[in-house]
Amino acid sequence: MHSDAFDRYHHGHSLIHDLDPRVKVVVTVGFILSNALLPDGAWTAFALAWLFVLTASFFSGLGLGFTFRRSFIALPFALAAITVLFSIPGKPVTSFQFLMWNFTITDAGLLRFVSIVIRSWLSVQMAILLVAVTEFPKIVHALRHLRVPAVLTVIISFLYRYLFVLADEVLRLLRAREARSAQMAGRGAGGSVLWRARVTGNMAGQLFLRSYERSDRVYNAMLSRGYKGELMTIHPHQVHAGDWLIVLLSFVCLAIMQVVGRAL
Amino acid sequence: MHYSPVALHIPDGFLSFIVSLICWAIAAVVLAMAVSRTNKSLGEKQVPLMGIMAAFIFAAQMLNFPVAGGTSGHLLGGALAAIVLGPWAGMLVMTAVIAVQALLFQDGGLIVMGANILNMGLITSAIGYGLYRGVSNASRSTKLAVAGVAAWLSVMAGALATALQLWLSGTSDLQTVTLAMLGVHALIGIGEALITVAALTFIMQTRPDLLDESSASAQGGRGWALPGIALSLAVVLLSPLASAFPDGLERVAENMGFLHHGQSAPYQIIPDYTVPFLGETALSTIVAGIIGALVVLGLSILTGRSLQKKSQVSK
Predict the structure, then answer these.
(1) At B17, which helix (H) or strand (E)?
(2) B172 vs A83: CB contact, 8 Å cut-off?
(3) Searching chain A, which residue's CA lies closest to the CA of residue B196?
(4) How many domains would you assign to chain A?
(5) Has residue A39 got a pLDDT over 60?
């Protein structure tokens, strides 16, 4: 499997692509943090935040609709928030009959629900943009510079490196199961659910052993290439004056959103 | 090829700032302990091992088996990772998996990643390893049975923790979200338990050396039984409390002043959300919970069906 199937990084050069990865990570986290801090119903601030996302998308050269198209990934989770529509006391907006029960949507509930969904939607867009303009290994490298423990970043690097290899392994296991599961038309194939679960469990065990033994070989290969317990890189990151300027600008924008969100 | 997200990945925006912060703090403390313990006890050889094991968990989450009605059972892997790798390594591995899911797939948010790590990585590992370790001298079948129960409980614990965080953030109504989360994950947990037990059986038969007393996973020590059992008890006691008698839990949270702070904004637009729901509203809440659970179930069946169709078409 090619990494493109998973990785959403888009090659290119733009103002945003060429920023230091640390800057991109910090600004993204700052933006999401700022969203979390905005009060419910701060519509002007939400609009400004969206403008912020659009500006960043524009300068990334990916097009204004890019983040929007992918932003619905978090939407199913909105189900979890649906109950606030009915459970927060407030002025009734509308009520409807479902089977034999009455549901009343209150204005306060509606306000909260819409605010939660908007916050999430804005945050997801920014995260999508981050991944689209930063190669994943660079994000991990940035995390290391931002004082995330080395053990974790090294595990994440390995995870990313072998994800596609092991995904292929899973696809082979699934194909093998498919190949030996002949099915007659109109009749279910395979045994009971328990039996199917056991087959899948065996596949997981098989995958575990293959991964385990692969890690042995990987380790030996690394040793022979001079591995001393730490990963090295030949791309040292440097923060330029321009990077600082972007950080400063972004945080001024975030501060303005917070002020607007509270004042209006 | 599809990668099936699990309903436990909370996206950004659904937890309040304070709740996210507290979860990050707890996760950071536990992870710091895990990092220092693994740095001390593991040699350089374990680093590529853990990295590839993280990729293994990630890939193993793609394995599934058909259950009735187009739904499928699959693996979260927290309990399995902790049992085969040891609790600390299991936690680090799960954290890496969750971090990559959030960073690469936007499956789960960044500010709420602390909560996701806590729910799906730390609690599941502690329960999975703790219970399994508690019976390490027992016969093979007892061990496997306990591993199955631990895997099921770990999923339920993750679901309960998620529900409580959503409630404390003022995103969901306590009773509804607990009922829906626990209801759905009681089923998901069964798939988790079956796969975990079968995978362990397979490993015991083919490479028993990886699971015996001298292996890395045994380095966690017997002391783990205690937090494992304590967390399991908390799940068993809190679940019925939160789903059947939510008022008690809300009163406690209110007395601690937590619920009020937990509500997202410093400016309260909703004046008194903490009033215990009484009378007719309580009934409507329960009903809403059941409907919510049914909607979630229906949606997952529909998605499962459409995914199945898609994969059949692509073949």
Answers:
(1) helix B17-41
(2) yes
(3) A201
(4) 2
(5) yes
In the prediction, which pLDDT does B294 show?
Answer: 55
Point out the residue among A122, A128, A166 whose CB comes nearest to the CB of B55: A166
**A231 within some domain:** no
**Across the interface, do A197 and B191 touch by the CB < 8 Å criterion?**
yes
- Rg of chain B over Cα atoms, rounded to whole angstroms, equals 20
Q: What's the pLDDT score for residue B125?
A: 94
Q: How far is A27 from chain B (nearest CA, A)?
A: 12
Nearest-angstrom CA–CA distance, A107 and A97:
18
Report CB contact under 8 Å: B110, A203. no
My answer on whether A129 and A248 are in the same domain is yes
Q: What is the mean pLDDT of chain B?
A: 77
Same domain, A40 and A130: yes
The pLDDT value recorded for residue B279 is 35
Q: Are residues A28 and A122 in the same domain?
A: yes
Q: Write the pLDDT tens digit of every residue in A41-59.
A: 889 999 999 999 999 999 9
Report if residue A233 sits inside a domain: no
H or E segment to which residue B65 belongs: strand B64-66
The answer to whether B194 contacts chain A (CB < 8 Å) is yes
Contact list in B for residue A116 (CB cut-off 8 A) is 13-14, 171
pTM of the model: 0.82
| Contacting residues of A for B50, CB less than 8 Å apart | 151, 155, 158
- Candidates 3.40.50.450, 2.10.25.10, 3.30.450.40, 1.10.1760.20; CATH matching B17-266+277-314: 1.10.1760.20
One-letter identity of residue A176: A
For residues A80 and A153, membership in a common domain is answered with: no
Q: Do A39 and B92 touch (CB under 8 A)?
A: no
Contact criterion met (CB below 8 Å) for A236 and A22: no
Look up the domain containing A173 and give its range.
Answer: 149-179+193-224
Contact B35 A152 (CB under 8 A): yes
State the pLDDT at residue A190. 64
Interface confidence: ipTM more than 0.90: no
Q: Among B64, B97, B206, select the one facing A159 at the smallest CB separation.
A: B97
Report how far residue B286's alpha carbon sits from residue B296's, in angstroms, rounded to the nearest whole number: 15
B69 in reach of chain A (CB within 8 A): no
Check the CA dihedral B140-B146-B148-B151 and report its sign. negative
Contact between residue A233 and residue A17 where contact means Cβ atoms under 8 Å apart:
no
Per-residue pLDDT tens digits for A158-183: 898 888 889 899 999 989 988 887 77
Q: Is residue A129 part of a domain?
A: yes
Examine the domain organization and report whether A45 and A100 are in the same domain. yes
Does residue A141 lie within any of the structural domains?
no
Q: Who has greater pLDDT, B139 or B279?
A: B139
